[in-house]
Automatic annotation (TrEMBL):
The keyword Nucleotide-binding does not apply. This is Uncharacterized protein. It comes from Mangrovivirga cuniculi. PROSITE patterns: PROKAR_LIPOPROTEIN, TPR. InterPro entries: TPR-like_helical_dom_sf, TPR_rpt. TPR repeats lie at residues 61-94. Pfam families: ANAPC3. Keywords: TPR repeat.
Length: 118
């Protein structure tokens, strides 16, 4: 297990280092303000706010990505995967979406599957 974790982390670091410039997101004018813990101290509030943004603009993959991050942070990995898949369906070119999906899969115990995304 430790070998798998170190392999995963090594692959993740290499991917981040070599794909930094290709993973830039183009933010629309509706881009959410950076989620700071001081602005949204409760994750439930953060998720509710993101859901409101999704209702306003269901074609913005960034909103699904942000919701997936929030869900991952509270251990709701299955829900996070559902949201990140929606983001990928709208924009499959953003490397950050794949990194988040790999991280969530890894946390769910699907180490090998997560490595294939990297």
């Amino acid at each position: 297990m430790l070998k798998n974790q170190s392999l995963f982390l090594s692959a993740l670091v290499v991917l981040i280092l070599f794909s930094g410039s290709s993973c830039k997101r183009e933010y629309s004018s509706e881009r959410l303000v950076e989620f700071d813990e001081n602005v949204f101290p409760e994750t439930d509030e953060k998720i509710k706010f993101i859901e409101e943004r999704i209702a306003l603009n269901p074609n913005n993959p960034e909103n699904y990505y942000l919701k997936a991050e929030a869900l991952r942070n509270v251990g709701k990995y299955t829900d996070a995967l559902e949201q990140i898949d929606k983001a990928l369906a709208l924009d499959s070119s953003d490397g950050n979406y794949y990194l988040l999906k790999a991280d969530v899969l890894h946390k769910k115990g699907f180490v090998t599957r997560s490595l294939f995304l990297l």
